[in-house]
Amino acid sequence: KKVLVKVDNLVKHFPIRAGVFKRIVAWVRAVDDISFEIYEGETLGMVGESGCGKTTAGMTLLRLYEPTSGRIIVDNEDTTFYFMPRFKAKQYLKKTYIRKFKTENPETFTGIDKKYYEIYKDSGEKGFYDVLLSNLNEKRSEFRKTMQIVFQDPYSSLNPRIRIKTIVSEGPVMHKVIKKSEIIEKVKSALEEVGIHGDHMYRFPHQFSGGQRQRIGIARALLMNPKLIVADEAVAALDVSIRSQVINLMLDLQKKHNLTYLFISHDLSVIKYISDRIIVMYLGKIVEDASKKDLFDEPLHPYTRALMSAIPVPNPEYKKKRIILKGDVPSPVNPPSGCRFHPRCPVAKEICAKEEPQLREITPGHKVACHFPGSLK
Ligand code: SF4
Predict the structure, then answer these.
(1) Which of 307, 349, 356 is the best mutation target for the ligand 1 pocket, counting ligand atoms within 8 Å of the beta carbon and taking the most?
(2) Whose Cα sits closest to atom 6 in ligand 1?
(3) Which stretch of DSSP H or E encloses residue 90?
(4) Given CB 3.0 to 4.6 Å as the disulfide criterion, which of 29, 59, 306, 345 pairs with 323?
(5) CA distances from 96 to 7, 90, 100, 119 (A)
(6) What is the largest CA-CA distance in the chain?
Protein backbone atom coordinates (compact mmCIF):
# COMPACT_ATOMS: atom_id res chain seq x y z
CA LYS A 1 0.00 0.00 0.00
CA LYS A 2 1.20 3.48 -0.86
CA VAL A 3 1.88 5.88 1.99
CA LEU A 4 0.03 9.13 1.32
CA VAL A 5 0.99 11.00 4.49
CA LYS A 6 3.96 10.34 6.74
CA VAL A 7 4.24 12.25 9.97
CA ASP A 8 7.63 12.16 11.70
CA ASN A 9 8.10 13.30 15.30
CA LEU A 10 5.42 15.97 15.07
CA VAL A 11 5.35 18.42 17.97
CA LYS A 12 2.91 21.26 18.55
CA HIS A 13 3.24 23.32 21.70
CA PHE A 14 1.19 26.45 22.42
CA PRO A 15 2.60 29.22 24.58
CA ILE A 16 0.68 30.54 27.59
CA ARG A 17 1.35 34.24 28.05
CA ALA A 18 0.72 36.36 31.10
CA GLY A 19 1.54 39.73 32.65
CA VAL A 20 1.81 43.20 31.17
CA PHE A 21 4.53 42.19 28.74
CA LYS A 22 2.72 39.01 27.75
CA ARG A 23 5.73 36.88 28.57
CA ILE A 24 5.57 33.17 27.96
CA VAL A 25 5.02 31.52 31.33
CA ALA A 26 4.36 27.94 30.25
CA TRP A 27 3.72 25.71 27.28
CA VAL A 28 0.72 23.54 26.49
CA ARG A 29 2.20 20.37 25.08
CA ALA A 30 -0.80 19.55 22.92
CA VAL A 31 0.99 17.19 20.53
CA ASP A 32 4.25 15.82 21.77
CA ASP A 33 6.35 13.87 19.33
CA ILE A 34 4.00 11.67 17.38
CA SER A 35 4.78 9.65 14.25
CA PHE A 36 2.32 7.82 12.06
CA GLU A 37 1.42 7.04 8.49
CA ILE A 38 -1.77 7.27 6.47
CA TYR A 39 -2.06 4.90 3.52
CA GLU A 40 -3.80 5.84 0.31
CA GLY A 41 -7.49 4.91 0.21
CA GLU A 42 -7.81 4.00 3.88
CA THR A 43 -9.62 5.54 6.81
CA LEU A 44 -7.37 6.16 9.74
CA GLY A 45 -9.35 6.71 12.91
CA MET A 46 -7.85 8.87 15.64
CA VAL A 47 -9.46 8.45 19.03
CA GLY A 48 -9.00 9.77 22.54
CA GLU A 49 -10.67 11.85 25.23
CA SER A 50 -11.01 15.58 24.71
CA GLY A 51 -7.72 17.33 25.37
CA CYS A 52 -5.62 14.41 24.13
CA GLY A 53 -4.32 16.39 21.15
CA LYS A 54 -6.15 14.68 18.33
CA THR A 55 -7.71 17.86 16.88
CA THR A 56 -4.40 19.73 17.21
CA ALA A 57 -2.70 16.86 15.36
CA GLY A 58 -5.26 17.10 12.53
CA MET A 59 -5.05 20.88 12.33
CA THR A 60 -1.25 20.80 12.30
CA LEU A 61 -1.29 18.19 9.58
CA LEU A 62 -3.42 20.54 7.48
CA ARG A 63 -1.14 23.44 8.42
CA LEU A 64 -3.93 25.39 10.06
CA TYR A 65 -1.36 25.43 12.87
CA GLU A 66 2.34 25.57 12.10
CA PRO A 67 4.18 22.61 13.66
CA THR A 68 6.64 23.42 16.47
CA SER A 69 8.91 20.73 15.04
CA GLY A 70 8.72 17.50 13.09
CA ARG A 71 8.18 16.60 9.49
CA ILE A 72 5.03 16.15 7.40
CA ILE A 73 5.57 14.29 4.15
CA VAL A 74 2.69 14.20 1.70
CA ASP A 75 2.82 12.17 -1.49
CA ASN A 76 6.58 11.78 -1.16
CA GLU A 77 7.27 15.53 -0.83
CA ASP A 78 8.31 17.24 2.37
CA THR A 79 5.59 19.84 2.93
CA THR A 80 6.75 20.99 6.37
CA PHE A 81 8.35 24.22 5.14
CA TYR A 82 5.67 25.18 2.60
CA PHE A 83 4.03 27.75 4.84
CA MET A 84 7.15 29.11 6.52
CA PRO A 85 8.75 32.45 5.56
CA ARG A 86 11.58 31.84 3.10
CA PHE A 87 14.46 32.34 5.55
CA LYS A 88 12.87 29.91 8.02
CA ALA A 89 12.21 27.39 5.27
CA LYS A 90 15.89 27.54 4.35
CA GLN A 91 16.91 27.06 7.98
CA TYR A 92 14.60 24.08 8.18
CA LEU A 93 16.07 22.49 5.04
CA LYS A 94 19.57 23.06 6.32
CA LYS A 95 18.84 21.53 9.70
CA THR A 96 16.81 18.61 8.40
CA TYR A 97 18.65 17.62 5.24
CA ILE A 98 21.96 19.38 4.57
CA ARG A 99 23.42 18.47 7.97
CA LYS A 100 22.41 14.88 7.44
CA PHE A 101 23.79 14.77 3.89
CA LYS A 102 27.14 16.14 5.06
CA THR A 103 27.59 13.86 8.05
CA GLU A 104 25.83 10.56 7.38
CA ASN A 105 26.49 7.73 4.97
CA PRO A 106 24.31 8.27 1.86
CA GLU A 107 23.85 4.52 1.47
CA THR A 108 21.72 4.45 4.59
CA PHE A 109 19.24 6.99 3.19
CA THR A 110 15.79 5.81 2.29
CA GLY A 111 12.53 7.36 1.12
CA ILE A 112 12.46 11.10 0.97
CA ASP A 113 16.03 11.47 2.31
CA LYS A 114 17.29 9.44 -0.64
CA LYS A 115 15.17 11.41 -3.10
CA TYR A 116 16.38 14.76 -1.75
CA TYR A 117 19.98 13.54 -1.53
CA GLU A 118 19.94 12.98 -5.30
CA ILE A 119 18.94 16.62 -5.79
CA TYR A 120 21.71 17.74 -3.40
CA LYS A 121 24.26 15.57 -5.17
CA ASP A 122 23.35 16.94 -8.59
CA SER A 123 22.89 20.59 -7.71
CA GLY A 124 24.94 21.30 -4.56
CA GLU A 125 23.70 23.07 -1.43
CA LYS A 126 22.61 26.29 -3.13
CA GLY A 127 20.94 24.40 -5.95
CA PHE A 128 19.16 22.22 -3.38
CA TYR A 129 17.58 25.28 -1.76
CA ASP A 130 16.72 26.71 -5.16
CA VAL A 131 14.96 23.53 -6.29
CA LEU A 132 13.01 22.98 -3.07
CA LEU A 133 12.10 26.60 -2.49
CA SER A 134 11.01 27.30 -6.06
CA ASN A 135 7.32 27.72 -6.90
CA LEU A 136 6.30 27.79 -3.25
CA ASN A 137 3.00 29.48 -4.09
CA GLU A 138 2.06 26.69 -6.44
CA LYS A 139 3.16 24.08 -3.93
CA ARG A 140 1.00 25.68 -1.22
CA SER A 141 -1.97 25.79 -3.52
CA GLU A 142 -1.45 22.14 -4.47
CA PHE A 143 -1.22 21.25 -0.77
CA ARG A 144 -4.48 23.05 -0.01
CA LYS A 145 -6.20 21.14 -2.80
CA THR A 146 -4.83 17.80 -1.68
CA MET A 147 -5.83 18.15 1.98
CA GLN A 148 -9.34 19.21 2.95
CA ILE A 149 -11.24 19.36 6.21
CA VAL A 150 -14.80 18.72 7.31
CA PHE A 151 -15.43 20.51 10.58
CA GLN A 152 -17.26 19.36 13.67
CA ASP A 153 -20.00 21.91 13.89
CA PRO A 154 -22.22 22.16 10.82
CA TYR A 155 -23.91 25.18 12.43
CA SER A 156 -20.87 27.40 12.60
CA SER A 157 -18.66 26.11 9.80
CA LEU A 158 -20.85 27.66 7.07
CA ASN A 159 -21.08 31.45 6.87
CA PRO A 160 -24.80 32.29 7.48
CA ARG A 161 -24.75 35.33 5.19
CA ILE A 162 -23.47 33.58 2.10
CA ARG A 163 -25.40 31.39 -0.30
CA ILE A 164 -24.47 27.74 -0.61
CA LYS A 165 -23.32 28.21 -4.19
CA THR A 166 -20.61 30.65 -3.08
CA ILE A 167 -19.69 28.67 0.04
CA VAL A 168 -19.09 25.52 -1.96
CA SER A 169 -17.33 27.13 -4.94
CA GLU A 170 -15.15 29.77 -3.21
CA GLY A 171 -12.14 27.51 -2.52
CA PRO A 172 -12.14 25.63 -5.83
CA VAL A 173 -12.35 28.89 -7.83
CA MET A 174 -9.56 30.48 -5.79
CA HIS A 175 -7.31 27.45 -6.31
CA LYS A 176 -8.31 27.24 -9.98
CA VAL A 177 -9.80 23.77 -9.63
CA ILE A 178 -12.90 24.99 -11.41
CA LYS A 179 -13.47 27.94 -13.75
CA LYS A 180 -15.96 30.69 -12.92
CA SER A 181 -18.04 29.67 -15.93
CA GLU A 182 -18.38 26.14 -14.53
CA ILE A 183 -19.55 27.11 -11.03
CA ILE A 184 -23.25 26.35 -11.44
CA GLU A 185 -22.73 23.03 -13.17
CA LYS A 186 -20.02 21.82 -10.74
CA VAL A 187 -21.74 22.97 -7.56
CA LYS A 188 -24.93 21.31 -8.70
CA SER A 189 -23.25 17.99 -9.32
CA ALA A 190 -21.29 18.18 -6.03
CA LEU A 191 -24.48 18.86 -4.07
CA GLU A 192 -26.33 16.08 -5.83
CA GLU A 193 -23.50 13.71 -5.05
CA VAL A 194 -24.03 14.33 -1.33
CA GLY A 195 -27.82 13.98 -1.63
CA ILE A 196 -28.89 17.62 -1.81
CA HIS A 197 -31.02 18.96 -4.65
CA GLY A 198 -28.87 21.04 -7.00
CA ASP A 199 -31.38 23.92 -7.09
CA HIS A 200 -30.86 24.43 -3.37
CA MET A 201 -27.52 26.09 -4.08
CA TYR A 202 -29.24 29.49 -3.96
CA ARG A 203 -30.36 28.97 -0.38
CA PHE A 204 -28.65 30.12 2.81
CA PRO A 205 -27.22 27.73 5.45
CA HIS A 206 -30.05 28.33 7.95
CA GLN A 207 -32.51 26.80 5.50
CA PHE A 208 -30.90 23.40 5.99
CA SER A 209 -30.89 20.89 8.85
CA GLY A 210 -27.68 19.88 10.69
CA GLY A 211 -27.25 16.72 8.62
CA GLN A 212 -27.76 18.63 5.37
CA ARG A 213 -25.25 21.27 6.42
CA GLN A 214 -22.70 18.59 7.11
CA ARG A 215 -23.38 17.21 3.63
CA ILE A 216 -22.76 20.69 2.25
CA GLY A 217 -19.46 20.76 4.17
CA ILE A 218 -18.55 17.47 2.53
CA ALA A 219 -19.54 18.80 -0.94
CA ARG A 220 -17.33 21.82 -0.32
CA ALA A 221 -14.36 19.59 0.49
CA LEU A 222 -15.12 17.25 -2.40
CA LEU A 223 -15.17 19.93 -5.06
CA MET A 224 -11.47 20.58 -4.43
CA ASN A 225 -10.69 17.06 -5.66
CA PRO A 226 -8.75 16.26 -2.49
CA LYS A 227 -6.73 13.14 -1.77
CA LEU A 228 -7.08 13.38 2.00
CA ILE A 229 -10.05 14.60 4.01
CA VAL A 230 -9.60 15.26 7.71
CA ALA A 231 -12.98 14.82 9.37
CA ASP A 232 -12.77 16.37 12.81
CA GLU A 233 -15.63 15.08 14.95
CA ALA A 234 -17.62 15.39 11.72
CA VAL A 235 -20.69 13.58 13.04
CA ALA A 236 -20.49 14.41 16.74
CA ALA A 237 -23.04 17.24 16.58
CA LEU A 238 -25.60 15.17 14.64
CA ASP A 239 -28.49 12.98 15.83
CA VAL A 240 -27.69 9.30 15.96
CA SER A 241 -29.98 8.44 13.01
CA ILE A 242 -28.46 11.18 10.83
CA ARG A 243 -24.97 10.22 11.98
CA SER A 244 -25.04 6.84 10.27
CA GLN A 245 -26.39 8.40 7.05
CA VAL A 246 -23.49 10.86 6.93
CA ILE A 247 -20.94 8.14 7.73
CA ASN A 248 -22.36 5.89 5.01
CA LEU A 249 -22.25 8.79 2.57
CA MET A 250 -18.60 9.33 3.42
CA LEU A 251 -17.84 5.66 2.89
CA ASP A 252 -19.60 5.68 -0.51
CA LEU A 253 -17.70 8.78 -1.59
CA GLN A 254 -14.46 7.18 -0.44
CA LYS A 255 -14.98 4.22 -2.75
CA LYS A 256 -16.05 6.37 -5.67
CA HIS A 257 -13.22 8.92 -5.48
CA ASN A 258 -10.51 6.81 -3.84
CA LEU A 259 -10.42 9.23 -0.91
CA THR A 260 -8.28 8.85 2.16
CA TYR A 261 -9.73 9.91 5.50
CA LEU A 262 -8.28 10.89 8.80
CA PHE A 263 -11.33 10.52 10.99
CA ILE A 264 -10.96 12.17 14.37
CA SER A 265 -13.47 11.32 17.09
CA HIS A 266 -13.81 10.77 20.80
CA ASP A 267 -16.41 8.09 20.09
CA LEU A 268 -14.87 4.65 19.76
CA SER A 269 -18.05 3.09 18.34
CA VAL A 270 -18.08 5.60 15.44
CA ILE A 271 -14.36 5.01 14.91
CA LYS A 272 -14.94 1.26 14.91
CA TYR A 273 -17.57 1.56 12.23
CA ILE A 274 -15.64 3.73 9.79
CA SER A 275 -11.92 3.00 10.26
CA ASP A 276 -9.50 0.54 8.70
CA ARG A 277 -6.73 1.43 11.13
CA ILE A 278 -6.90 3.21 14.46
CA ILE A 279 -4.58 5.43 16.46
CA VAL A 280 -5.31 5.92 20.15
CA MET A 281 -4.02 9.16 21.69
CA TYR A 282 -3.52 10.12 25.30
CA LEU A 283 -2.20 13.48 26.50
CA GLY A 284 -0.41 14.43 23.29
CA LYS A 285 1.09 10.98 22.64
CA ILE A 286 0.15 8.00 20.52
CA VAL A 287 -0.34 5.06 22.87
CA GLU A 288 -1.53 2.46 20.37
CA ASP A 289 -1.58 2.16 16.58
CA ALA A 290 -3.13 -0.92 14.99
CA SER A 291 -5.56 -2.28 12.42
CA LYS A 292 -9.17 -2.21 13.54
CA LYS A 293 -9.25 -5.96 13.92
CA ASP A 294 -6.10 -6.15 16.02
CA LEU A 295 -7.15 -3.26 18.20
CA PHE A 296 -10.59 -4.63 18.96
CA ASP A 297 -9.55 -8.28 19.18
CA GLU A 298 -6.60 -7.61 21.38
CA PRO A 299 -6.13 -4.12 22.76
CA LEU A 300 -2.69 -4.00 24.32
CA HIS A 301 -2.57 -0.61 26.03
CA PRO A 302 -4.42 -0.29 29.35
CA TYR A 303 -5.92 3.02 28.21
CA THR A 304 -7.33 1.44 25.04
CA ARG A 305 -8.76 -1.39 27.18
CA ALA A 306 -10.45 1.14 29.44
CA LEU A 307 -11.90 3.06 26.48
CA MET A 308 -13.27 -0.15 25.02
CA SER A 309 -14.84 -1.25 28.23
CA ALA A 310 -16.90 1.95 28.13
CA ILE A 311 -18.59 1.13 24.80
CA PRO A 312 -22.24 0.29 25.52
CA VAL A 313 -23.24 -3.28 24.71
CA PRO A 314 -26.65 -3.81 23.09
CA ASN A 315 -27.38 -7.00 25.02
CA PRO A 316 -28.00 -6.28 28.75
CA GLU A 317 -27.53 -9.99 29.59
CA TYR A 318 -23.92 -9.70 28.59
CA LYS A 319 -22.11 -8.21 31.52
CA LYS A 320 -18.67 -7.12 30.51
CA LYS A 321 -16.11 -5.91 32.95
CA ARG A 322 -16.09 -2.13 33.05
CA ILE A 323 -12.72 -0.55 33.78
CA ILE A 324 -13.12 2.72 35.63
CA LEU A 325 -10.11 4.99 35.44
CA LYS A 326 -9.07 7.01 38.45
CA GLY A 327 -9.12 10.82 38.22
CA ASP A 328 -9.17 13.10 35.21
CA VAL A 329 -6.80 13.54 32.31
CA PRO A 330 -3.86 15.54 33.74
CA SER A 331 -2.98 18.96 32.33
CA PRO A 332 -0.92 18.98 29.14
CA VAL A 333 1.05 21.89 30.63
CA ASN A 334 2.72 19.64 33.16
CA PRO A 335 2.28 16.07 31.96
CA PRO A 336 3.23 13.27 34.39
CA SER A 337 6.76 11.90 34.21
CA GLY A 338 7.54 8.58 32.53
CA CYS A 339 4.40 7.08 31.07
CA ARG A 340 1.83 9.88 30.97
CA PHE A 341 -0.91 7.43 31.82
CA HIS A 342 0.74 6.13 35.00
CA PRO A 343 -1.29 8.11 37.60
CA ARG A 344 -4.49 6.53 36.23
CA CYS A 345 -3.23 3.15 35.08
CA PRO A 346 -4.58 0.16 37.05
CA VAL A 347 -1.48 -1.93 36.30
CA ALA A 348 1.25 0.71 36.70
CA LYS A 349 4.55 -0.36 38.27
CA GLU A 350 7.52 1.57 39.59
CA ILE A 351 9.29 1.87 36.25
CA CYS A 352 6.22 3.52 34.66
CA ALA A 353 6.73 6.78 36.54
CA LYS A 354 10.41 6.90 35.65
CA GLU A 355 10.81 5.75 32.10
CA GLU A 356 8.73 6.84 29.15
CA PRO A 357 7.65 3.82 27.10
CA GLN A 358 8.40 4.15 23.38
CA LEU A 359 5.89 3.20 20.70
CA ARG A 360 7.11 -0.20 19.53
CA GLU A 361 5.79 -2.86 17.21
CA ILE A 362 4.63 -5.92 19.15
CA THR A 363 3.15 -7.87 16.24
CA PRO A 364 3.33 -6.78 12.58
CA GLY A 365 1.42 -3.51 12.25
CA HIS A 366 0.42 -3.39 15.94
CA LYS A 367 2.34 -0.75 17.88
CA VAL A 368 1.95 0.13 21.53
CA ALA A 369 3.65 2.46 23.99
CA CYS A 370 3.56 0.54 27.27
CA HIS A 371 6.11 -1.24 29.45
CA PHE A 372 3.63 -4.05 30.13
CA PRO A 373 1.47 -4.39 27.01
CA GLY A 374 -1.57 -6.59 27.36
CA SER A 375 -1.31 -6.80 31.13
CA LEU A 376 -4.73 -5.30 31.84
CA LYS A 377 -7.26 -8.04 31.19
FE1 SF4 B 1 0.32 1.53 32.58
FE2 SF4 B 1 2.96 1.39 32.86
FE3 SF4 B 1 1.86 0.68 30.55
FE4 SF4 B 1 1.94 3.21 31.27
S5 SF4 B 1 3.69 1.92 30.84
S6 SF4 B 1 0.21 2.15 30.45
S7 SF4 B 1 1.62 3.06 33.46
S8 SF4 B 1 1.60 -0.34 32.54
Answers:
(1) 349
(2) 370
(3) helix 86-93
(4) 306
(5) 14, 10, 7, 14
(6) 70
Mutate to test the pocket of ligand 1, among 300, 350, 352, 359 (most ligand atoms within 8 A of CB): 352
Q: Give the three-class secondary structure for 264.
A: strand
Domains detected in the chain: 144-274 (3.40.50.300)
Ligand 1 pocket test: which of 282, 285, 337, 339 has the largest number of ligand atoms within 8 Å of its C-beta? 339
* Cβ density class 220-232: b for 16+ within 10 Å, e for less: bbbbbebbbbbbb
C-beta separation of 324 from 352 below 8 A: no
Residue 169 CB: number of other CB atoms within 10 A?
Answer: 24
CA distances to 169, 173, 184, 186, 265 from 181, rounded to whole Å, are: 11, 10, 8, 10, 38
Distance 285 CA to ligand 1 centre (A): 13
Q: Which residue type sits at 68?
A: T
Q: How far is the CA of 321 from the centre of ligand 1 (A)?
A: 19
Contact of 362 with 300, CB cutoff 8 Å: yes
The predicted-structure confidence for 69-109, as pLDDT tens digits, reads as follows 999 999 999 999 999 999 999 999 999 999 999 999 999 99
Going from the Cα of 372 to the center of ligand 1, the distance in angstroms, rounded, reads 6
Amino acid at 161: R
Predicted complex ipTM: 0.99
Give the model confidence (pLDDT) of 104-163 as tens digits. Answer: 999 999 999 999 999 999 999 999 999 999 999 999 999 999 999 998 876 777 888 999
Q: Report residues whose beta carbon is within 6 angstroms of any ligand 1 atom.
A: 301-302, 339, 341-342, 345, 347-348, 352, 357, 370-372
DSSP 332-363: TTSPPSSSTTGGG-TT--HHHHHSPPP-EEEE
Q: Which residues on adjacent β-strands are paired with residue 44?
A: 262, 277
Q: Work out the angle at residue 224's Cα, subtended by the Cα atoms of residues 218 and 229, and round it to the nearest 5 degrees.
A: 50
> Is residue 261's pLDDT more than 90?
yes
Closest Cα to atom 7 of ligand 1:
342
